[in-house]
Amino acid sequence: MSQTLAPQEQISNQAGQPVKELPHVFDSTRLTLVDFLDVDGDIMERARQFTGFLDDARARGHCHYRRVSVTGSGPTIQVLDPDTGETREMVYMASNDYLNLTRHPRTVAAGIEATRKYGAGAGSVPLLGGTFDIHIALEKEVAAFKGCEAAILYTSGFGSNCGTLLTMLTKADVAICDLLIHASLKDGCGNTNVEYFRHNNMNSLEKVLSRCRDKYRTKLVVVDGVYSMDGDIARLDRIVELAHAHDAYVMVDEAHATGVIGENGRGTPEHFHIEGKVDIVAGTFSKALGSVGGFIASRKDLINLLHFYARSYMFSTAPTPQSVASLREGLRVIVEEPELRRRLWDNIDYFKKNLLGLGFDIGKSETAIFPVIIKDDLKVKEMVRFCHDHGVYVNPVVYPAVPRRLSRLRCSLMATHTREHLDKALNTIEDAGREFGVI
């Protein structure tokens, strides 16, 4: 049994900054990931201490990360149980595969056909020898889908956001960011000045825009369309209006919006009827589109620039033929099978009504992402363990991913969840909430 962590003694590293000297035996309930950012010793010692922390968390049933599915993404999955070594079926409430296009017969068939025709990979970076006709076709289709002139494909959504921003913004520029933007966007602002405004607060945004108006060469407002931890929607119509009035551009990350919101699933600009007015529309292919990769859609001139200056594009092999073909078919499915999105929204309405009826705090969730806010890291870990033991797969989100007062379970819905699946999840979360005194 691990000992209780004693008060930490502060020592200094070579730079004169205080670092933590951690004990050799850990009580993981008293530590967080922050404690391992800078500890005494070199990187291998830091890794060894972190492993001790993970081992203790696993022993307590609190380490529900990297759980292994042996069946892929779906409303239910077969999970390899880390304790028994056996597979067990679980209701899967942790996927971003909102329309379940990872398993749609049309996207699967398109990927298989493309693999047979083009092979397993592109073989080169896109700027040199890795661009195929299907890459060009997908670029055009993404641009049209997002109401923009042109688009560029990346092999990951993270690389798309990070590489694009690192290319666009320098020390002469400024990124004006919502406090809750995705980590890939924050990392992309590493070469520039950054100003933050309070989440979805237009008064705060206007004050920052006014302060920055005459100080920087390029001013770029950076937001998510749908926020990944809270499920709320950026007030993009007002954001665009304010930004353009202050001679600033707008970049919106559509990762969790594409396929989910908007009359035809085209995302946040369509939701607010401002298609064509957003300067840069970013997104990932790994959520509702059911594959992997990322994109930027914008003016042709900017896309031309990114082809030659975005390092995450230039120095990464082009997306695989399978993923590209599946994505092209996925875009068609979104347009041609609107009943998938209708089923998703039926599930969203049902789940939201019942969570609120049980007395849970779900913040300002408006979409398929539900934060079940518990406000206690240890209770979150215990509730996730309870849900896992009862066949429901939900994710823990604790400090430092969110403030301690906002620690939560994170649930996300799919169009292919049945009422039976949702009821099992709701009943299990209710039982966990009562077991640990949350409701």
CATH fold-level label of the largest domain = Aspartate Aminotransferase, domain 2
* Low-pLDDT windows of residues: 1-19
CATH class of the largest domain: Alpha Beta
Helix/sheet category: alpha/beta
SS elements, strand count: 16
Estimated helix fraction: 25-40%
Q: How many domains, as an integer? A: 3
Largest sheet, spatial ordering of strands? 6-12-11-10-9-7-8
Which word captures the global form? globular
How would a textbook summarize the main sheet?
7 strands, mixed
Description:
- The protein is of the alpha/beta class.
- It has 14 helices and 16 strands.
- It folds into three domains: 9-59, no CATH class; 68-92 and 338-435, Aspartate Aminotransferase, domain 1 (Alpha-Beta Complex); 105-336, Type I PLP-dependent aspartate aminotransferase-like (Major domain) (Aspartate Aminotransferase, domain 2).
- It has helices at residues 43-59, 105-118, 133-145, 157-168, 183-188, 202-212, 236-245, 268-271, 300-309, 311-314, 321-336, 338-358, 377-389, 419-435, and strands spanning 9-12, 18-21, 68-69, 76-80, 87-92, 150-154, 174-178, 193-197, 219-224, 249-253, 280-284, 294-298, 369-373, 392-393, 395-397, 408-412.
- The longest helix is centred in the C-terminal third of the chain and has 21 residues, at 338-358.
- The two termini are 31 Å apart.
